[in-house]
Specification:
The protein is α+β, with helices and mostly antiparallel strands. The protein folds into two domains: 51 residues; 58 residues, no CATH class. It is 50% helix and 17% strand. The chain contains three helices and six strands; from the N terminus they run H-H-E-E-E-H-E-E-E. A hairpin with a 4-residue loop joins strand 1 and strand 2. Helix 1 runs antiparallel to helix 2. The longest helix is centred in the first third of the chain and has 39 residues. The protein is rod-shaped, with a radius of gyration of 27 Å. The structure holds zinc ion.
């Protein structure tokens, strides 16, 4: 028997025996159980986000300049290390053709930018 079925059955019994105080307490417990269920759903969601973040972090390749690439992905796909560090947000940086065939990497979210060092 689930929590809600149990409370519902107990409320039914409290009504049958005409115990108002027991009935009120069961209604209160039912409300608390609902709050707990909402909290559990929120925590599960946060936990999934954290786990996803950790999985991403485990495949990071860090570089001298403030950007990241992901292991197994195209090494030209660069993510902003500043946005990840501050907000755990994975923001792909724009690649802009710059002077002398160099590439400027630019984060449209936090404006982090630099000229890619020759590799
Ligand atoms: Zn950024």
């Amino acid at each position: 028997m689930g929590l809600y079925e149990g409370i519902k059955d107990a409320i039914g019994i409290a009504q049958k025996v005409d115990n108002i105080e027991l009935y009120r307490q069961l209604i209160d417990l039912s409300s608390q159980a609902l709050d707990m269920q909402t909290e559990i759903a929120k925590l599960r969601e946060e936990n999934a986000e954290l786990k996803k973040g950790t999985d991403i972090e485990n495949s990071f390749i860090r570089h001298e300049q403030p950007y990241l690439t992901l292991d197994g992905e195209n090494p030209k796909t660069c993510y902003c290390a500043v946005c990840w560090g501050k907000k755990r947000k994975l923001v792909q940086m724009d690649r802009i053709n710059w002077d002398h065939g160099q590439i400027k990497l630019y984060c449209s979210n936090c404006k982090n930018h630099f000229i890619e060092s020759k590799q």
